[in-house]
Amino acid sequence: MAFDPTDLRSTLPSNAATATAPERFSGSEHVQFRDRAPVEKTESVSTWYARGQNFVVGYSEVDGPAAFARTGQPDEYVVLLADDDLEARVQAPGEEVTATGRTMIVVPPGDSTVTVTGRGRVLRLLTTRSADVAALAANADSYTEPHENIPPFQPWPEPVGGYRVRTYDLTVAPLANPPFRLYRCTTFMVNFIDPKQGPRDPAKLSPHKHDDFEQCSIVLAGEYVHHIRWPWTTNKANWREDEHYSVVAPSVTVIPPPSLHTSEAVGPATNHLIDVFCPPRSDFSAMDGWVFNAADYPAPEPR
C-alpha cells in the first residue's frame, strides 16, 4: 500500500504476509443515480438504491416532510443527514429522538420511523438481511451469486447499554492526517470526510487494497475517477483490465477485494466522497482514537 509517511494510514497493520492470495476476483460496481429514474418517488422525496455484498445504500433527495419506516428490522441501520437544513424525528419503541443538521443516526432493530423535514440529502445504510430493500437496488442482479473473497457477514457486539437510537455529529473536527471522521455501530462503519475544493493533487494519491471486504465510496458532490487494478495470477483467464472509471454525484461505487484502488477528485468546484464499510473495519478500529464513538460500540475480541 502506498501512503505518504505523514499519513497515519502508513502505520496500519498489514496482513499481506499471512493472507492466502486469491485466484478469482469479482468486478467493481458503479451506480450513477442521475442516469436512472428514482425507484420511489413522491411529491417530497425521490429515492434510489445500490448494493454491495453485505449492504444496501438508499439515497434520497428530500424537499419537505418524508417518512422512512421499518417494520421488524432485523438489525441496526444507519441514517445520514448530509445537509445542514435537515431535521429528523426518530420514533422507536419507548423513545423519540430528534436530530438537526449533518448527523449520523443509528436506529435499533425492530419497528421504527424516521421522519425528515427540510431540504437536502438523506442516506440510509442497511444490511442485505433487509431483503425487501436489497431487491430494489439498481445492481441487484450483480449479486445473484456471492462475490469473491468476502466472508459471510457477522455483526459486531451489541452496544454498551443495549440497543437504542444514537446520534453523532458529523461536523466535529476530523482526525488531522488522514482527515477522517469515523463512527461505527454493530453493522456499519462510516467515514464522513469533509468536502474538498477543486481537484486532488495527482502526485498525492493513495493506492491501497483490502484483502477481504468491499469499500463503498459514495460521491455526494462533484466528480471523481476511481482507479482500480486487480492482481495478476498464474491463470491469465482470471485477469481483469485496469479501470479508470469516472463518476459524477450522486453515485455509489463498490470496490472489491483485493483490488488496488484510489479515488481522485477531478471536479473543478466542490468534491465530496464518503466511505462506508459493512461490517466495521478491524484495522481502523485497532487504531487508538480513530473511531469517535468506540466507547459506545465495542470491537470483537481478537481471535
TrEMBL record:
Gene3D superfamilies membership: Jelly Rolls
Alphabetized InterPro entries for the sequence: RmlC-like_jellyroll, RmlC_Cupin_sf
UniProt feature, compositional bias: Polar residues: 8-18
Stretches the record annotates as Disordered: 1-37
Protein's recorded name: Uncharacterized protein
Organism: Actinoplanes auranticolor
Organism ancestry: Bacteria, Bacillati, Actinomycetota, Actinomycetes, Micromonosporales
